[in-house]
Each structure stands twice: as structure tokens, then as C-alpha cells.
Amino acid sequence: MDINLFDYDFPEELIAQYPTRERDESRLLVLDRATGGMTIHPFREVTRFVDSGDAFVVNDTRVFKARLLGHRATGAEVEVFLVRRSNEVSEADCLWEALAQPSRRLKEGERILFSGSGQLSLTLRDNRGDGRWLVRFDSERDRLEIIEKYGHIPLPQYIRRPDTEVDISRYQTIFARQDKTGAVAAPTAGFHFTPEILADLEAKGVNRVELTLHVGPGTFKPVTTDNVEDHFVDPEIAMLSADAASTLNRTRDAGGRIVAVGTTSVRTLESAPISRGRVERFSGEVDLYIRPGYEFRLVDRLLTNFHLPKSSLLILVSAFAGRELILEAYRKAIAEKFRFYSYGDAMLIL
Q1: Are 242 and 282 in contact (CB under 8 A)?
Q2: Of 65, 67, 332, 344, which residue has the fewest beta carbons closer than 10 angstroms?
Q3: At what angle do helices 263-271 and 312-321 cross, to 10 degrees?
Q4: pLDDT at 66
Q5: Residue 198 pLDDT more than 90?
Q6: 8-state DSSP, 13
Q7: Which domain holds residue 244?
Q8: CA 282, CA 273: separation in Å to the nearest integer?
Q9: Are residues 9 and 72 in the same domain?
């Protein structure tokens, strides 16, 4: 398929630069795949569209301050964007995969400094090309201290402002768990939930399933190939526990529907092994690229934010609901002046 089939135009002023005052003040476009009907609601009314026995599946990953601003010995500024811990060596070596800018001027073996005394630093160990580096911290303690003192919330580039104190809490879902820290981009469909909404869902008899996918910077990577099929998505670490798999199986056995909150939940669910009709636990890399023609095995409904043109995420939701219907929904959202992207409004696809 031609990538231009997944393009659309919209006013840039619709890109949400800040979160809403309250999480559930966002709007919700409900799209019915069976009828093509669309209705608009306050997000807090999302509970109307699920029944007792259904399951909401959320991503409990936690975003860390992955964008590190340091400097060379010359004083020149350097940005090191941590991606994930390297699996090439033992944890004791504290090696991380990272992106560094300006990469062309940097040298292997060079130390990037984060304090006036130079006591806090990292070493650019291996240049992997295209701005990708393997970096080494002197210790895990140093890494955590650098992140705490010199790290910044990794807001996407279309948010054209520095990160603030507000982003520390709001560029994070309420599902995020400290022991699941590892994402450098947020699972933004979960931004809209509040404790009150969760209580309403629980009172209604809706199950909540938590899984983990540590979102990487590749989530923002545009599709640059002319042919959609020639693109690939970067691998990310995902985990589905035995308890989560058991709840999913009980939901399916009882005829309940599985509602995925966000494309990260979709990719994790659809990557889960199924043996003799039973979902099984797993942990490992996920690089599933969902595009039109894909047959969904587990996901019945999808709650998602609005996505960039020509992106793998827009392609994924098009696979779920049909390209023409999704683009029609986007046109309606634009006409209704919905807020777009990470801090924007949401769409529930029935």
C-alpha cells in the first residue's frame, strides 16, 4: 500500500501543547465500526461503552527523565537521550543504548559532563551510526543521580516548549508503577483516566488488566518508505504476567470484550502467545507491525489518541477500523477542533 494513503492535513494549532486542567476533561470521539456512526462525549463518559465482564487493558510502564543535557570538556552542549539498558553485557557494566546530538562532532571514548566538577559523567563508548551510541555510566548510582539532577521529561518534538513541573506528573499515566520504570515515551491513551473513572469501572464489574511495554523513541518514527509493507518498527521490551493472562482468558470464556487502552497495549496483546486457545504469559522484545490485512486475535475495542500522518500508529488503527473510516473520523475530529496527539483528546473504536 502507498504510504500517502495514510496522510491527512490539519491545522497545527490543534496540536495540544499542554495537558487539560484535569485528566478527564478531554473529549472522546466514539466510532462504531459496524455502522460508521460517530458521537462526541466528555471522556468521563467512557464507562457508558463497556459492560460488566469486559476488560480494560492498560500499560503500566513508567516514563523516566531520559533526555540528559550535558556538555563536552570544551563546554559545548550535548544531548544524550537514553533508550534502554544494553543487553550485551552484565548490569554491573551499566551500559545503555542512547541517541546523542550533535553526533558528528562526538568521539568514541569522550566523556560527557553533567556537573561543574565533572564528577558526574558518562562515556561515549561505541558509535553505532545514525546518532546511535552505546554509553557507559561509572555506576548505577551515578546514572540515577544524573537522571534526577540533569534529566528532562522526553516530550515529543511536536510539543514545542521545554518540559515543566507539570509534565513530571502529567506525562505519565496513573497506572505507571515505579518498579516498571523504563519508557522514554508515554502510553498516552491512558492519560485521561482518573481514580474516579477507575472506581466507576470497578463498580460496573469491568476488569482491569495491567501489562507492560516500555515505549521507545521509535513510536514517533515516521514511515519513510513509499510502500507501507517495507517499513519496520523498532523492538521494545514487553511483559504480560500469568495473572494478566488468566484474567484475559476468564474474560474471553465469559463472553466479555477486551478493550485495549492504547496502541502499546494492542501490540503487546497481539504479540502474546496463544496455546490451545489460551493466552499465555510472556516477556521479551515486541516488534509486531500491524497494518491493514492483519487479523486481530484478542483486541475487541480500542481506546486511542489521535496519531501523526504517515505513522505506524495511524496504520495500526486503520488496520483495526478500516483506513477510510479512520480518516473520516479524523476529518470530523478536525472539524470539531479536537486536540491532537500526546496531550490531546481520545477516540474509542467499538
Answers
A1: no
A2: 332
A3: 70
A4: 97
A5: yes
A6: G
A7: 3-63+169-349
A8: 7
A9: no
